[in-house]
Amino acid sequence: MSAITHAVVRRGVDITVQHFSKADNNDGDEKEPEQLPGYAAFILVSTITVFVIAAFLIQYSYGMVVATLAIVEDPQAGHYLAVNTVDTDPTANDDDINKTTPRNAVDDNTSFAIPKPITSKIRTAIRHLQSRGGRLAPFRGFGLFLLWSITRGIIGGIFAAILTPLGLNNYAFHLFPRALAEIALATVELAWVHVVISEPSTKSMWKRIPGFSSWKKFAPVVTLRAVASQLTQILPLVLGQLMHVFDIRDGKIYPVPAEGENGARNVALGMLAIFGLSLVLTVLVDIPATVTMIRVGASMLPEEDESIVPFDRTFGGRTTNALVGGSGKIGMLDAWKTFTWPARVRLVKLLAKVLAVALAIGALAGAVVSLEVALLGGGKLGKLFPNAPEKGGVNVW
Where are the transmembrane segments (predicted)? Predict the structure, then answer.
């Protein structure tokens, strides 16, 4: 969905800039747009940068770390921290927490009750992480994530450089190298999953990355996720071209001018259809593939690593330790089938909350930037960006 969002945002900026630029020059075609001092652009760029960083950090901690914990957590498995005590008594210190009787502990005079999942609330999950790993625990695995992202870009660029001379310039072939890069980096992603779901460890980041034997086991499910992710991006792009919302050439999105009496309405309907298709593919294709990948990775957690949330390492007896002749991991189909409906609902609710927070940040960013434009540019965006919009398109990848 990122490519589609990027295209929609860029198109909106282009239209806005064109509108304001025309308003600036309505006194004559020869009039040069008024330039503002450099500090105006600096303030605007700084504001946008702050909001982008804030949105990314929230997406990482809530949409990736907490979501990963929600995917593997099984409230019925094991002995863990009493969630109600942490949630209802914010003044409790670590010693009090450690002395708390687990909610799933029972005696002869008590009936067993399934405890409330730690990831049922974002606040509870964040507090749980911080109580176990410190204030920066919600950003655990960030080093591995950066390594994976940068290396994926490099490997994807190498694959793309190989394909381009062969005449494979279609955007589908540009997205394909990204999937190959993700498959090649399967063990790095596996290490990220293990860091996120396990208790803090003294092992270095490099020692958490397993060897080739683990790659052979994990690569197939990464392939599934990578293909699902690329299809979620490619199909909406195809729809956008078919509906003439934008054109894609040489790996860039070019807005198609809204012509005719109903041009603007048709573009708006096209964007709505693209967003709807992206949402459906994300829910029905991308999320199930990601859930399957994470649960398979969780089943491969080393024996010496303790999980930070309760989950059954055997997934109901479906996995057998490799030391006794088993595969040492759960199968892809079992990984999805053992993800119960309550857990699916919990994950969807969590992702909906993350989306709501992201939209709120986007709305706030838009309001702040609009205010700055009004104050610094006299309400005319063309003064801040006199040469926009650019003639080139927006990179798809």
Answer: 39-58, 142-163, 175-197, 218-243, 263-285, 354-376
Instruction: Extract the tokens encoding 77.
Output: 């498995």
Instruction: Give yes or no for a contact between 188 and 147, defined as CB atoms under 8 angstroms apart.
Output: yes
* Over residues 329-350, mean pLDDT: 93
* C-alpha distances out from residue 395 to 5, 232, 273, 348, Å: 12, 17, 21, 30
- Domain residue spans of the chain: 33-88+115-369
Rg, Å, the chain Cα set: 25
> How far, in Å, CA of 119 to CA of 312, rounded?
16
In this prediction the pTM is 0.77
214, 187 in Cβ contact below 8 A?
yes
Closest C-alpha among 201, 186, 247 to residue 11: 247
Cβ-contact 25, 34 below 8 angstroms: no
Q: Is the peptide bond before 255 cis (omega within 30 degrees of 0)?
A: no
The single residue listed with the structure tokens 């999320």 is 287
Q: How far apart are CA 170 and CA 260, in angstroms?
A: 29
Span 156-165, average pLDDT: 74
Return the residue matching tokens 């573009």.
267
- Considering the domain delimited by 33-88+115-369, tell me its CATH architecture: Alpha/alpha barrel (1.50)
Model confidence at 28: pLDDT above 70: no
When mean pLDDT is compared across 7-16, 200-209, 248-257, 365-374, the lowest value belongs to 7-16
Plot region of 266 (φ>0 → left; ψ -120 to 50 → alpha; else → beta): alpha
Q: What residue has token string 């279609």?
A: 170
Residue 370 structure tokens: 């609009």
